[in-house]
Amino acid sequence: MDFVELEAIEGLRWSWNAWPTTKNEVSSLVIPLSIMCTPLMQSTELPILPYDPQICTHCAAVLNPYARVDYLSRIWDCPFCYNRNHFPISYSGIGETNLPAELFPTYNAVEYKIDKVDSKFGSNLHLGYGWSNGFSSSNVSLSSMSVGTPRNIGGAGGEVRGFVGPFPAFVFVVDACMVEEELRAVKNELLLVVEQLPENALIGLITFDAMVRVYDLGFSDCSRVVVFHGGREVSSEQTQQFLGICSTKWGQQQLGKTPVIQKLGFLLPVSECEFNFTTAIEEICSLAVVMPGHRPQRCTGAATSVAVGLLEGCSVNTGARIMIFTSGPATLGPGIVVDSDLSDAIRTHGDLINGHAPNYTKSCSFYNQLSQRLSDASVVLDLFACSLDQVGAAELKGPVESSGGFMMLGELFESDQFRKCLRQIFSRDEDGHLKMYFDATIEVVTTKDVRICGALGPCVSLRKKNIIVSDRETGEGGTYKWKLGTLTNRTCIAFFFEVCDEQRAEPGSAFLVQFITRYRHGNMGVRKRVMTAARRWAENKSPEITAGFDQETAASVMARLAIYRAERSFARDVVRWMDDSLICFASKFGDYIQEDPSSFRLSSNFSLYPQFMYYLRRSQFIDVFNCTPDETAFFRLMLNREGVVGSLIMIQPTLFQYSFDGPPVPVLLDVRSISADVILLFDSYFNVVIHYGSKIAQWRKLGYHKDPNHENLRKLLEAPELDAQQVVMERVPAPKLIKCDQHSSQARFLLAKLNPSVTQNSTFIDGSEIILTDDLSLQDFMDHLQALSVKV
């Protein structure tokens, strides 16, 4: 079974592709029943349907290929609840040879484009006709279904050309305490970004140091700002009162209807304020007066709260982003990270563990309250932080992650990394729309034998319950529906399930899971992506269960669970839980003679899982030694939204060897792979290392690659650099590219991740590189695992 091919069709990866029928059997599997869902996975075969989906009147499931259809009576039976539903009159031509795309057996995933005409034209008619207007299997091709532009509708009131609706909003929050060169780099990039924005996009500008300044972009005579004291926590109502905003109730706004945007100078369309915005940006200068022995007075938390209050007051609850650009920690007001006095060191992991970080708990509580406001207002929080010290990303992680926002930690705003990240976020698709998706919800529908436990990823539980919601919660649980401020084509969420054995399912019968993702496209039109998948129930100890185990997905799921536990308990307790789970797993699925470790064997579809757990135990996600709290927060945030392939690279990095013997080949992530006459390309997702063996490095320093007689050496040196550049270009945020020679100090980035099979304690070295460490090697780890697994 090729799980990657299945993912390309369904957009889903299952830890177990066949499920037991009882809770006891499920608990014995050790790895939970889970699905890694990429809601907006790119696919060339995805049909875009310009009409409303047919929804079951009982369970709200969407019509899909597993439904039974009575063509004569125009009735379909819901495969989830078996309710009988009538097709509307627009489906009058349906038949076995004339099927709508959502009933094609090969279309497990379809997308509905349900944009609506602006209310000023007198109705809420759909821009696309119904299915009966020609979108059927007998008279239209898939390419004609995937219409990129809505149809024009003529009428007495005039002609509607395309979708007229809500506009995205962007509030740029700039740290005025940056040094002049860094501030100039940020200003230049913001001016380029605004030039590329659609003319109807709303923009606002806020700067902060010890004060928060909100710019009135509608006032042309001079720069006019409203100033807030950075040391005080200002509520949403107070912010709106000071800004002169009369907010409307969000509850009156509905997805698919145009909100009423008030005429305010603090948030205006680009077409109306581009000149004033450019002038305001150019006039920003470093305002901080830093006392000797002190850090700049910086009120990041207050500025963020004011930005949220501005968007709440303007009722832009259909898609907005707050983008923070900062170069240091908050030293004032709510969300404070460290006092301004340099004698007070910024918190470390040791301080957090020992309770010596007096501001951390209070600041996290402040930002967690902000997370709920962001979710309610459909606002995304992005953090761009460039500094050689910590900036408070650990405190800000909550609202950034829950809103689906972007986080970048770098050293300089003048770097290519920052420019690439910002431009990637504001890139456009082939139709010229921003490649941003706002205001999303994900709803899960299952058959009656399956219960939903929760989700782990950049989402927030909406606490909506029904009979398929389990009382046992995992992560964001207690619901069948989740909110996402934004998502991308790569955003991946792990969903957890359990079996309801009140009425035991029949082994061999099928069960279904459906994911319904509703979101706003880059053109602010409403889309609905529906993914439906079926699997079979299996008897306990059935070969179907073992054959359906996806060890890569299992490792990704366990990594998310480990992070979830690590943020709520001590690291040693997490490692103990991981070890206990692995021992139970090996004991359950290994073939062995009791009390005989040498007889232990794991079949091929289980054999890599212990290796993944070994590298996860040593990873920066669990072992935070030599990492700051900010770095740990960033690493965990990235893992918690990445798909299976990206997660595995983070857990167990890839290593390729380049030599004169032939094309590059993958090699073991082991210190024995280092050799004097080869080049290694190492990819840990966050770092890409090109490691030159000592002989290769010496030849390069002597300039042999410039000699035409040594063309092979030139090609050998070029090959890993080209591959590394390709990796850096494709990944956002871009990984750090490191080039190092064997035995150099930079080689530590590679050595720290390699399996220490040869250490200072090894008796037989055979000229191999040595890692000075007391860590267990993979072989020692496996020996211990085998010894513990075969015990009675």
Automatic annotation (TrEMBL):
Domain Sec23/Sec24 trunk: 168-428
Superkingdom of origin: Eukaryota
Membrane topology per record: Peripheral membrane protein
Ranges where the Gelsolin-like domain occurs: 664-750
CDD domains in alphabetical order: Sec23_C (cd11287)
Residues of the Zinc finger Sec23/Sec24-type domain: 53-91
GO terms (BP aspect): COPII-coated vesicle cargo loading; intracellular protein transport
GO cellular component entries: COPII vesicle coat; endoplasmic reticulum exit site; endoplasmic reticulum membrane
PANTHER family xref list: PROTEIN TRANSPORT PROTEIN SEC23, PROTEIN TRANSPORT PROTEIN SEC23 G
Chain's role: Component of the coat protein complex II (COPII) which promotes the formation of transport vesicles from the endoplasmic reticulum (ER). The coat has two main functions, the physical deformation of the endoplasmic reticulum membrane into vesicles and the selection of cargo molecules.
Full protein name: Protein transport protein SEC23
Organism: Salix viminalis (Common osier)
Lineage: Eukaryota, Viridiplantae, Streptophyta, Embryophyta, Tracheophyta
